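ok so for the tutorial part 2 we go from a plain amino acid sequence to predicted structure tokens. step 1 is just haveing the sequence, like this:
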Amino acid sequence: MAIFVYKAKAADGAVLSGKIEASNQKGASEKLRLQKLNVLELKESGGLVETIKKKLGLGGSVGSKDLVIFSRQLSTLVSAGVPIVQGLTILEEQMENPVFRSVVGEVRTDIEAGLSISDGLKKHPRVFPEIYTAMIKAGELGGILDTILERLSGFLESAEALKGKVKSAMMYPAIVLTICSVVTIFLLTFVIPTFKTIFSSFNRELPIPTQVLINLSDTLRARWYMIFIIPAACFYAFKRFYATPAGHRWCDQKFLQAPVFGVLLKKVAVAKFSRTLGTLIKSGVPIMQGLETVAATAGNKVIEDAVLSARESIREGGRLADPLKKCGLFPPMVTQMISVGEETGSLDIMLVKIADFYDTEVDAAVKGLTSMIEPIVIVIMGIVIGSIVIAMFMPMFEMGSMAG
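step 2 — the prediction. this is what the tokens look like for a chain of 404 residues:
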């Protein structure tokens, strides 16, 4: 049995709050209704540990895979004629993720209280993104909720696959550079001090590279805590700078202009923009609302500004392709296909084709990037470790030449 904290309105209009014990949220709601109480708020009380986790942001989360499975299952239930409240109850009971189960229970309670599905989902923006609620609202208005849920599942799967490709491109260099850093710190901390003892018996001035390395080793051993403080301080400073509007825009601009990764990020941005807008328009979302949603979910301030500029152009009677062409972020092929789509009334189809094409381009870019990064990272690691080894053996070489 679980403990639920509730806030409810009595028959005389008084607002009551308290705790109630039940096996699940539905059972708690039923108990309160039997007491002739109108439930306003009902949440599971997880105790002190769960409360602390929630305050610190250490609680569970809802992943995109959970959302995809939820959308597909709900689409199947709605297509089979199951009422939405009953469908949510079925899914709530079989969910393994406790956070998602609680959210779905709250959404079901809100729908039972008279809210629309989209309004119930909007109360949980961390679980259901803006594009999700916008498409659900379009599905409600058009009476095609099952179709919209199916499209949402496909969209989320494509977005997750795109994110996975970018992560795979970053994973290998990150692992190798981490190993290189650990090995370097180990040599500076434990190996070089042994050589320092040997060199002190030479009674000769050490070569400059060797002396620099020994000084660095001494500093690192004396102030070992700087290994953790400096990276943490740099990360905190970057996070604070990135949190400001100007810093966010500047960093996003530099990311897109990066020599190697910039091309990949632009292709990812084009693919995400095209698929998101194409899916929204195809689902019946008005283009003005669709562009607003795309801008909010772009994840890059420069792309967001370009999309909002396109939205203003359409508001003033212009076309979508023209401001996208001016911003310089979208390749000519993309703007030309969007222009053709606007002229022929098949913009959603063109956007989906662009997204499919750039998904393939991202695949090729990731493979090329990975094959190029591997030797570069290995060479960098070899240079760092080799420089340390050479600097340590330089005094021995000099002693050997003197003995000769």
